[in-house]
Amino acid sequence: MTGLIEWRNFSISIGIAIFGVIYIVWAGTYPRDLGTLPGLVGWLTVILGLLDALTYTDTAAGAKVRRLVGHTVEEDEADAPKDKDWRTLGASIGWPAAYVTAVAFFGFIATTPVYIVLYMWLFGKRSLRFSLISSLIVTVIIWITFEYLFQYPLFDGLLFGASF
Amino acid sequence: MPNTNMLESTLAALHVLFTPTGSMFLMLGVVVGLLFGCMPGLGGTTAIALLMPLTYGMESNEAMALFGGIMGAVSAGGSISAILINTPGTAPNAATCFDGYPLAKQGKAGIAIGAASVASTIGGIIGVVVLVAVIPLLKSIVLLFGPPEFFMMAVMGLTAIAVSTGGQFLRGLIAAAFGLILAFVGYDSVSGGIRFTLGTDYLWDGISLVPALTGLFAISEMIALSVSGGTISSEAKSTRIVSVFEGVRAVFVHWKTLLQGSVIGTIIGAIPGLGGTVAAFLSYTAAQQISKHPETFGKGNIEGVIGPEAANNAKDGGSLIPTLAFGIPGSAEMAVFLGVLVLHGLEPGPMLLIEHQGVMFSLILALTASCIIATLITLVVARYLVLITLVDVHILVPAVIATSLVGVYALKETFGDVILAAVFGIVGYLMIRFKFPRVTLVIALILGGIAERTLHQSLNMASGDWTIFFTRGISLSLVIITLGCLTIPAIQSLRRRRKLEEEPAE
């Protein structure tokens, strides 16, 4: 009997093996003293990725590897944190990404209160007033701690003359 | 100061702790540790990752006071939420829920908190005493180490931690391989060449450890909290906490349970990868076995609180043994702590105890003081501390993400670090989601450079002959232990299968 037990984890493991192959080729472009050990680690990644992929297949070899490494596929999904839905997951990852992008242009002090308000109001469904107050408190604490107490200058943003 | 003796180091560390700045950072660490320990989903690892960039300009001794304060207080904070709202603040506190929460429901929350606080303090002190006692021994062992031993130690540490990740052995090794791949980025100290920088100058110095750790352990946890949403707890309410001293007395009545838990915690903590959760549960089971009333476990037996809490705090001293002596952290918290050492110019590895003994004693004393201070604070303000778990996740998440990224930028004033931390935050969340252990990646990232350098040194010593790893006693022993570690999952699986086969016959 052949087939996949869990396609998502199987795909990830195959992706890792493919990355390993690309890395081996990349390591091969460097002189021997720079590329040998990375090349070996690349091979290790390929082998481990393929073995891991095998554990997610419904094959005799897969069952054998699962037994050898003590892997119980059923426990994977049971223990893993549950995705509520793809939109929540995408938004949870998207918010920090959007914050970093905005900071690059507008700097920390201008972006942080806006980020906190928008996150709490739009994503967290909190009242606008509560979100505004919370964002101002957090921003003031950050400003006092970093710029005033520790005297670390904060990034001003590309639009305000800062550079990377 | 290689020849500084232990007494001088202890006195110097005491001097630092008693300066106004040292005491202030210790107290700050204790408060942060209690708050982060009390809030499920945060914990000591996040606290250390978040505060790490702020310590860059500090003296190493003061930074150790801060982080020792955090480490010693986290488990005390975690026990409060475990007892009062049946939600463990940190994973090892889960064992405390079994009897702590039933006691709270019977109106004996004060007894449980008193017992948990004192048991964790005494456990913590026992762990530290063992650590101090083994330091001279460790120092004489590490002096026997040469490059082949250092290399094999790194390989053994990575393997042991990957093996200890439960059913995720392969994914532990894959995460370690990724850690090594990341460690190879940038300037190679052996040949002087530049590798895998994608053409950017930013990566010439390699992957910066602080942004990587902040992303992997602070931002990723916030993304996970954001996905789960809501408040951390809806059950927290101000509870009357009375008869605390009855709990304190119970610890001394059940001294065997206390001692047993402390020993288990110290030993388990010293084994890389096992960590506090295993120690606490093992101690709980052991406490049940020696109890005169094992049938009352799970229904509110105070011994079920004393055992796990003693083990939980004793493991800190134990896990510092491999972390400080060999640069092999026993847990995620210790892995992030290795990042702190690197940030302060203290290279993890066998020479740490010899070259920076004074700094290490600052940490040890701070850890001890923190256990005591955290207990005193807990006994007084536990009922209010638990209210922190009512904090809305949707305030916490953007506040922690913003603070983390500002901190990461402040360190070197490089925006590349901010981008790197955000990328590692997303990678860290995906690792949590798909069960790739982050700790093996971090250890490989930290040890990768050391491993590569010592590999080259070993091969140069032996004119390229790989048998050097098998012809030296300690190195060969480490090779054998590494191979032994690799067979553990197969043996465990075999034993499970045999047990399953035997069960129907019974």
Any overview of this molecule?
The complex is a heterodimer of chains A (164) and B (506). Helices cover 74% and strands 0% of the residues of chain A. Chain A has 164 residues and is mainly α. Chain A has two domains: 7-79; 86-160, no CATH class. Chain B is mainly alpha-helical and 506 residues long. Chain B contains 21 helices and two strands. In chain B, helix 7 runs parallel beside helix 21 and helix 13 (303-326) runs antiparallel to helix 16. The N and C termini of chain B lie far apart (64 Å). At the A-B interface, helix 1, helix 2, helix 3, helix 4 and helix 5 of A face helix 8, helix 9, helix 17, helix 18 and helix 21 of B.
Offer a quick outline of the entry.
The complex is a heterodimer of chains A (164) and B (506). By secondary structure, chain A is mainly α. Chain A contains seven helices and no strands.
SSE topology sketch:
The complex is a heterodimer of chains A (164) and B (506).
Chain A: H1 7-28, H2 32-54, H3 60-69, H4 73-79, H5 86-106, H6 108-123, H7 128-149
Chain B: H1 6-17, H2 20-38, H3 43-51, H4 60-85, H5 94-105, H6 109-142, H7 147-163, H8 169-183, E1 186-187, E2 194-195, H9 209-228, H10 244-253, H11 255-270, H12 275-290, H13 303-326, H14 332-343, H15 352-355, H16 357-385, H17 393-412, H18 415-433, H19 438-461, H20 468-471, H21 473-505
Antiparallel strand pairs in B: 1-2
Helix pairs in contact in B: 1-16, 2-3, 2-4, 2-16, 3-4, 3-9, 3-14, 4-5, 4-6, 4-13, 4-16, 5-6, 5-13, 6-10, 6-11, 6-13, 6-16, 7-8, 7-19, 7-21, 8-19, 9-14, 9-17, 9-18, 9-19, 10-11, 11-12, 11-13, 12-13, 13-16, 14-19, 17-18
